[in-house]
Amino acid sequence: MKRALIMLTAIVIPADERQPIRQQQIEPHDLNAYRQIVGGNLEVVALDRPSASLYLNEEGKLRELPVNPRASVLAWVHNSALRATGDVIVGPAFIVGPTDGHGDDQSAPLGLVDLLFGTTRFRVQVLTGATRQWRQADPVLLSWSEAYRDAVRLTLLRPEIAEVRVVPDLAPELREVWYQLSLANPWIAAADDPPFTRSSFVGCYSVEELAEQIGHTSWSLGTAFYYRDLCFINQVDGGDEWLTIRHGVVFESITFMPYIEASTFASLIARLLAASKEACLRLEY
């Protein structure tokens, strides 16, 4: 039997900023396809938050290929060591995900794909050595490339910044929908230590961060986390029972620790994100 061809999704970043970035399907063992994108032999740069790999032309500087501004700021934000050197990416580049257990590249991280292709409002967050907590910077930015450039600019202006990241900004209308739906829950509405407010919603920008936050400790009543357009609000003080909202409807109450302990949390979130409004209401996800 012929084995099914497995493809991965790459984020391709042309050096010419007049050309849009794009998603491209590649067979993970097809090195010729890899080389065709960058125009020669391959060099790889490791990225963090999320873990990924950026491929570029190994001989790009020797061949005097043009600087790739968008790939450079992406690399500087997701690789602080590269940012410290000020080294730039030249020529076309592309991003794929981390390798699997067999050493094969995987698709570009879903959170990064959603940020670059599915987001219209962006914020920069900074992590300082003093607090080790992410703090949000102003203002809201309307393109990912502008947000990444602003993130790099902040690291140059403020040496106390240890790390920086670009995140989706929560649309005010979505926050309001979540807030009003949560107030209809008598337990959440009664939260007073701390009170439940429109500012209670805390964004998580990867499934791993969401799992870490929810599984971190016994959260107070009204604690709220969101990932993309999926929102969870704790409705038991010190407990693990999360009111779940998506598509503008409350449709479930989920206890997460069994999923986290069984390493099935990520697959649960993927199913929730893939489910239509009708499927959510039928609890078919």
Net shape: globular
Domain module tally: 3
| SSE sequence, one letter per element | EEHEEHHEHEEHEHHEHEEEEHHH
Q: Helix proportion of residues, in percent?
A: 25-40%
The average pLDDT score comes to 92
Which structural traits does this protein have?
285 residues; alpha+beta; five-stranded antiparallel sheet; 13 strands; globular
Structure notes:
With 285 residues, this protein is of the alpha+beta class. The protein has three domains: 8-109, no CATH class; 119-168, no CATH class; 172-281, no CATH class. It has helices spanning 31-38, 69-78, 80-85, 110-118, 144-157, 172-183, 186-189, 207-214, 257-261, 265-274, 277-281, and strands spanning 8-13, 22-26, 42-47, 52-57, 93-96, 122-128, 134-136, 161-168, 201-203, 224-227, 230-234, 242-246, 249-254. The strands form three sheets. The protein has a five-stranded antiparallel beta sheet with strand order 2-1-5-4-3. The protein has a five-stranded mixed beta sheet with strand order 9-10-11-12-13, sandwiched between helices. A hairpin with a 7-residue loop joins strand 11 (230-234) and strand 12 (242-246). The two termini are 32 Å apart. The model has no long low-confidence stretch (mean pLDDT 92).
